[in-house]
């Protein structure tokens, strides 16, 4: 099993999983909050439409975790990429 680094900690994933799938498989249902109201967000649509699942990947912000395949050594930062 391979690992990505999420907020500085290793997280195992299965080849073929997206970043969002790896997070959900690890028990995380929310990984950022909205700017207004600080409401929790994670996967909603799962198909790249809603932008609820935004994370920073390898320094690139605003990435949709539900669309990006997990890759060994990838660095993921949560809690960024707010919208309303
Ligand atoms: S869950 Fe909707 S864009 Fe990722």
Q: What hetero molecules are bound to the protein chains? A: FE2/S2 (inorganic) cluster
Strand count, sense and closure of the main sheet?
A: 5 strands, mixed
In DSSP terms (H or I, runs of 4 or more residues), the helix count works out at 1
> Beta fraction of the residues?
25-35%
Q: For the terminal residues, how far apart are their CA atoms? A: 36 Å
Overall shape: it is: globular
Description:
By secondary structure, this protein is mainly β. The protein has a single domain (2-77), classed as Beta-grasp domain (Ubiquitin-like (UB roll)). Helix content is 8%, strand content 31%. It is built from one helix and seven strands, in the order E-E-H-E-E-E-E-E. The protein has one helix at residues 19-25, and strands at residues 2-6, 9-13, 32-33, 40-41, 54-57, 60-64, 75-77. It has a five-stranded mixed β-sheet with strand order 2-1-7-5-6, with helices on one face. Strand 1 and strand 2 (9-13) form a beta hairpin. The protein is globular and about 35 Å long. The termini are far apart. The chain binds FE2/S2 (inorganic) cluster (FES). FE2/S2 (inorganic) cluster binds next to loops. Keywords: Oxidoreductase. It comes from Streptomyces xinghaiensis. This is (2Fe-2S)-binding protein. One of its GO terms (molecular function) is oxidoreductase activity. It holds the Pfam family Fer2_4.
């Amino acid at each position: 099993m391979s690992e990505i680094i999420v907020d500085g900690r290793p997280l195992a994933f299965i080849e073929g999983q997206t970043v969002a799938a790896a997070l959900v498989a690890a028990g995380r249902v929310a990984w950022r909050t909205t700017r207004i109201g600080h409401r929790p967000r994670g996967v909603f649509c799962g198909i790249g439409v809603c932008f609820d699942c935004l994370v920073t990947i390898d320094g690139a912000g605003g990435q949709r975790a539900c669309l990006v395949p997990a890759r060994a050594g990838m660095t993921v930062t949560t809690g960024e990429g707010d919208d309303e």
